[in-house]
Design goal:
The complex is a heterodimer of chains A (about 450) and B (about 210).
Chain A: H1 15-18, E1 26-32, E2 41-46, E3 57-62, E4 74-75, E5 95-99, E6 106-110, E7 119-124, H2 126-133, E8 136-144, E9 147-154, E10 163-167, E11 174-177, E12 191-194, E13 199-202, H3 208-211, H4 217-221, E14 228-233, E15 238-244, E16 249-257, E17 265-273, E18 279-287, E19 290-299, E20 302-303, E21 318-319, E22 323-328, E23 334-339, E24 344-349, E25 357-363, E26 386-388, E27 394-398, H5 403-409, E28 417-423, E29 429-438, E30 442-448
Antiparallel strand pairs in A: 1-2, 1-30, 2-3, 4-5, 5-6, 6-7, 8-9, 9-10, 10-11, 12-13, 13-14, 14-15, 16-17, 17-18, 18-19, 20-21, 22-23, 23-24, 24-25, 26-27, 27-28, 28-29
Chain B: H1 2-20, H2 26-36, H3 39-70, H4 73-93, H5 108-122, H6 124-133, H7 137-140, H8 144-177, H9 180-185, H10 190-206
Helix pairs in contact in B: 1-6, 1-8, 2-3, 2-8, 3-5, 3-6, 3-8, 4-6, 4-10
The chains are: A mainly beta (about 450), B mainly alpha (about 210).
């Protein structure tokens, strides 16, 4: 792999310095075919307002197979390469690692020499992942100081346990599973870390068998989807603590630790509560050597008539907000919360993490509301994957969750869109006029050229 | 006089080089200071880092001295040369190897161990082998105590130069410059270092 004379210019020692990075000019977005007939794709979208092709798809990489269900993805290297205990400052941020959540393949896509038209250069096979790590259904990718970490929903047979495995930085071979001692942990979904505290956090969704055929009412009503956080000793790769949010808190998904490595807290979204269909955001924090959690945001369900609702939620006569993604600005000041059911993106001031204050909101789509933008007509789906620029001024949104679940909550067929919002210094949030891109396939995660608010981690404050 | 002075200068010079290199320890010291918000944490981190580095050097110094006392000089040179070349090739093939299982919160012992492994993996001690061959270590020693004293002195000259440089850089970066400087000034010397290892190996070989 190529090395550089100086550190990659997109690496920043601290989030404070990364905020001053130049604005992104390209966004990478994965799209998938829910029918699994045509190959999924990585699209390059021009997000430079000064460019003639602004707001247009300017590149497309088709995967060499069909039926991957591209979902989340990440970089081979990022700012964590500057960490002092395993420094690799001259590695390049160059390859996007793009897992197929259904196929368990991971594509290695080279963004050079032409960042607009990257190329698939290598495929990590499901067999290698199964043989060396015992996992399948790779999900979240984070570039760590000493390797690329990947979470996986479960075992190759569709059961548990799910967990985390590690890829070699240089040749992308599977090095093995992360957990030397997994304790009681069985379910997996997201993971991230507090590098300053040698601590990793993992969250829980369900095993492949529990999620691949849609949300299963019996499992849900029995409170059997994930409701724990797990705390790990990162360098020693051992389970330290399980934190139960309560059985009624179903599906504990996206983890957003504070970017500042000296801060020992972070935010996690819970999709729904069995008590009242509300969704919530919790803070985890370090207190006297133990980690604890506290619910800091609760978003209530919105009442609706049964005939306005898809069969899966008709009995409840309400639209659950379904918090499916959250994102935290690099200055740890602002939290963005996607309500995929009610169709809303909320913005909170979290400068005091225990007292979030809602300062802005944009309505888009929604199961009942179908809120459109100027000239778009009614939209379905809702704000889902949310990505944020490093300076915190621009928010990018797509509206698909997961093929099997899209059909349940938007059974008429989810039409995919990609929008950009402006995030004002005053706490406001509004859609940028004219930025509305419909995609042929379902759009999922977005990452920004050079890094964004969920791509990098830092060892220095 | 110059005959006996140059190895000592080389030992000190390599120490300065290791002191400036962020990967050898000052960056770790600064990060610990930033995490604790304390300059004391920066300075106190330098002690275990220097000790770990010293240990890595001492191992080589002792091996060289003992080998010199047991084997004919040209055999020792040959061995040192081959080791240097092999190590140079290794650093070319795996430029990003690093010790495993460490994190930001290593204790004092962990930091010393990290420094020992990092210095050894870098070939810091090995690089000193040809320099040490220029020192009258083995030819003049009469008992183990004298051998030990010369070895310790050699390692100490190197580590003192390193620790002084490292401390200076760490404090100046922590207090004044800030880590933004990493982005501009952390030059990639991996290739150059591999070339130096190979060249030194070759020179040692042909002067054997």
């Amino acid at each position: 792999m190529a090395t550089l004379l100086r550190p990659d210019p997109t690496f920043y020692p601290s989030p404070r310095l990364a905020i001053d990075s130049p604005p992104e000019t390209l966004a990478y977005m994965v799209t998938f075919d829910p029918a699994r007939q045509s190959p999924d794709a990585l699209l390059t979208v021009d997000v430079d307002p000064n460019s003639a092709s602004y707001r247009q798809v300017v590149g497309k990489v088709e995967m060499p197979n069909v039926g991957d269900e591209l979902h989340h993805f990440g970089w081979n290297a990022c700012s964590s390469a500057l960490c002092p205990y395993a420094p690799h400052p001259h590695i390049e941020r160059r390859y996007l690692l793009v897992p197929g959540l259904r196929s368990s393949r991971i594509y290695v896509i080279d963004t050079k020499p032409d960042p607009r038209q990257p190329k698939v250069v290598h495929t990590i096979t499901p067999e290698e992942i199964a043989r060396k790590a015992g996992y399948s259904r790779p999900h979240t990718i984070h570039c760590g100081p000493d390797g690329v970490y990947v979470s996986a929903l479960g075992a190759p047979d569709g059961g548990g346990p799910g967990g985390v495995f590690i890829l070699d930085h240089d040749n992308f071979s599977v090095k093995g599973r992360f957990e030397l001692d997994r304790g009681p942990q069985e379910l997996a979904y997201d993971f991230w870390w507090h590098l300053g505290y040698d601590t990793a956090i993992t969250s829980e969704w369900g095993t492949p068998a529990m999620v691949e055929n849609g949300v299963q009412a019996d499992i849900l009503l029995a409170g059997q989807y994930g409701h724990h956080l797990h705390i790990w000793d990162l360098p020693r790769r051992r389970h330290k603590q399980a934190i139960d949010l309560g059985k009624e808190q179903q599906m504990v998904l996206e983890l957003r630790p504070a970017h500042d490595p000296t801060k020992a807290y972070g935010f996690v979204g819970v999709v729904t509560s069995l008590a009242d269909l509300s969704a919530s955001v919790w803070v985890w924090y370090l207190e006297g050597g133990q980690w604890a959690v506290k619910k800091v945001i609760e978003i209530p369900a919105e009442p609706a008539e049964a005939d306005q609702l898809p069969p899966v939620i008709q009995p409840f006569k309400a639209v659950p907000p379904l918090v499916t993604d959250i994102n935290l600005s690099l200055d740890d000041q602002w939290l963005y919360v996607s309500c995929w059911g009610t169709g809303e993106l909320k913005r909170y001031d979290v400068s005091d993490p225990f007292q979030p204050r809602e300062t802005g909101s944009v309505r888009l789509g929604g199961i009942v509301r179908r809120q459109g933008l100027d000239g778009s007509g009614p939209l379905n789906g809702g704000p889902q994957m949310v990505e944020l620029s490093r300076d915190g001024k621009r928010v990018y949104l797509t509206n698909s969750l997961y093929a099997a679940w899209d059909e349940q909550f938007y059974p008429e067929g989810l039409k995919s869109w990609f929008v950009k919002l402006e995030s004002g210094a005053d706490g406001g949030l509004k859609a940028e006029e004219g930025f509305f891109l419909e995609t042929e396939q379902r759009a999922h995660q977005i990452h920004l050229e050079g890094g964004d608010a969920s791509s990098d981690s830092y060892c220095y404050p | 006089m110059t005959q006996t002075l140059w190895p000592w200068l080389a030992l000190a010079g390599l120490g300065v080089y290791h002191g400036i290199n962020p990967g050898m320890g000052w960056l770790f010291a600064v990060s610990r200071g930033l995490q604790e918000r304390s300059r004391r944490a920066v300075l106190s981190s330098l002690v275990p880092i220097a000790l770990g580095h010293e240990l890595s050097i001492v191992v080589v110094v002792i091996v060289v001295a003992v080998t010199q006392s047991l084997l004919p000089p040209h055999t020792v040179r040959l061995m040192a040369a081959l080791l240097l070349v092999a190590f140079g090739v290794y650093t070319l093939a795996r430029p990003r190897s690093h010790p495993r299982g460490f994190g930001m919160r290593v204790g004092v012992f962990g930091l010393a161990l990290w420094s020992f492994l990092m210095s050894s993996a870098h070939g810091a001690g090995l690089m000193l082998a040809p320099v040490l061959l220029g020192l009258p270590v083995a030819s003049q020693f009469t008992d183990l105590r004298q051998l030990g004293a010369t070895a310790a002195l050699a390692a100490t000259v190197h580590v003192t130069a390193m620790a002084t440089t490292m401390g200076l850089v760490a404090v100046v970066v922590y207090e004044k410059l800030g880590l933004g400087l990493l982005r501009r000034s952390w030059f990639n010397l991996d290739l150059a270092w591999s070339v130096v290892l190979l060249t030194t190996g070759a020179v040692t070989l042909f002067t054997a």
